[in-house]
Amino acid sequence: MIRPAELIERKRDGGELSADELTELVLGYSRGEIPDYQLAAFCMAVYFRGLSDAETFALTEAMIESGETLALGEALGRKVVDKHSTGGVGDKTSIAVGPVVAACGVPFGKMSGRGLGHTGGTLDKLESIPGFRIELSIEEFVEQVREVGLAIIGQTADLVPADKRLYGLRDVTATVENVSLIAASIMSKKIAGGAEAIVLDVKVGDGAFMKTLDDARALAESMLELGRRAGKGVVCLLTDMDQPLGHAVGNALEVREAIATLRGDGPADFTELVVIASARLLALSDLGIDEGEGRERVERVLGDGSAHAMYERWIRAQGGDPDEGALPTAPTVVEVTAGRGGYVRGIGAVQVGIAALELGAGRRRKDDEIDHAVGVVCHKKRGDRVGEGEPLAEIHARDDASARSAGDAVRASYEIADEPPAQRPLVLETLAT
Ligand code: URA
User: Fold this and answer.
1) Structure confidence at residue 368 (pLDDT)
2) Mean pLDDT of 40-51
3) Considering 83, 189, 190, 308, which one is annotated as catalytic?
């Protein structure tokens, strides 16, 4: 039997824990035999001392062992690919990538999460679609992926329950931002969900957990190492989160933008990310094609209507109404205009994310209800020219007062200058196993 206090002390002093010790610690916590306060102290010791690659892998395996695993590939007789984003503002990528990949003939079954802080979650976005069911049984989930080629559901309680507990604890003990803890949290869920190859979108910048390229690279390296040890193909795209992705921030607004993108009519940056991530997924799949051929196929399904048709099939299969007109709309829409002319040098992604949250698009407290209709549409993005008094953004609000305060916050988030900013690519780096 381990003595948790001894393990905490060893980690606090910079020592190393064995795989057996980490397994007992995590499983004991998951079973409720080790209290929150000891795991909180342990996470803080890890926050300052870090974990070695071997410890991070042992932690990941212990988290997987805490619950059930899903052999989706075996059930389908296909190689299953998955994608995950570390979280950003305006990140509706999975809602467009899923139909694109499925329309190209690769099964896509994904478990997604809810919004965290100022970042939105795929499940909250999907719930803005009237009738859409995020809670399918595992049997229904597998059957839908087999029949339709695509299903996105909420994380089931049986899959990596240790992460659910640990994540909640880290969230309130200032121990989220540790590379090993984030890597183990993400990869344990992907591996337990049955993915054999994974595209990870590691967000970098103001609106992301990882503020610098160095930190994002360290997280990517840690997840790649876990992928190597677990025998999974992993590609990490390090992508810009110094401004919101696309134009829309807020649940129904983002679903509308994803639909427009599936019709080939989306914002340039968001479309580019959807194409790159989807092409990578196709290249990792069992189609036996490279990324260049993947890109051609992705562009084809976006251009010929089949990606959009797949979206409609998928939403109907999960009980939802795929008609854009069925999405909720906010009663008050106001423009945010530029106080001066010039070039947009930057948009504070966190400020925009918080403005959307304050409008009701996110949660201040864990059990807050979400208002799916509200949010922000950033018409002008970094590098765009704007004249004095021209619209920068649009606020979709429940009432005038909340629209006014969000409008002030969004106006303040725009930095406008005489000179255009230096170009910054959307995909900053790509790393692979
Ligand atoms: N997303 C996760 O799933 N886990 C983390 O620890 C951070 C982001």
Assistant:
1) 82
2) 97
3) 189
For residue 339, which of 406, 412, 396 has the smallest C-alpha distance? 412
Whether 220 and 238 have beta carbons less than 8 Å apart is answered as yes
Spacing, Cα 182 to ligand 1 middle (Å): 5
Reference 280, options 34, 100, 151; nearest CA is 100
- What pLDDT, on the 0 to 100 scale, is given for residue 217? 97
Q: Rounded CA gap, 59 and 332, in Å?
A: 48
With a 6 Å cutoff on the Cβ, whether 86 touches ligand 1 is yes
338-392 pLDDT, tens digit each? 999 999 999 999 999 999 999 999 987 767 889 999 999 999 999 999 999 999 9
For residue 116, pLDDT over 70 is answered with: no
Q: Which amino acid is at 127?
A: E
Do 349 and 89 form a contact (C-beta atoms < 8 A)? yes
**Taken in order 280, 284, 287, 293, is the CA torsion positive or negative?**
positive
How many angstroms is it from 237 CA to the middle of ligand 1? Answer: 16
- For residue 26, give Cα distances in angstroms to 31, 39, 168: 9, 9, 14
Which pTM does this prediction carry?
Answer: 0.93
pLDDT at 157 over 90: no
Q: Which residue in 356, 338, 370, 363 sits closest to 402, CA to CA?
A: 356
Closest alpha carbon to 103 in 256, 280, 310: 310
Question: Could you give the angle at which helices 179-192 and 161-171 cross, rounded to 10 degrees?
Answer: 150
Burial tier of 299 (Cβ tally within 10 Å: 0-12, 13-18, 19+)? middle
Tokens describing residue 270: 């968001």
Q: What angle do CA 158, 137, 157 make, to 5 degrees?
A: 20
DSSP secondary structure string, 183-194?
HHHHHHHHHHTT
Crossing angle of the two packed helices 4-12 and 36-49, in degrees rounded to 10: 20
**Nearest Cα residue to atom 8 of ligand 1:** 86
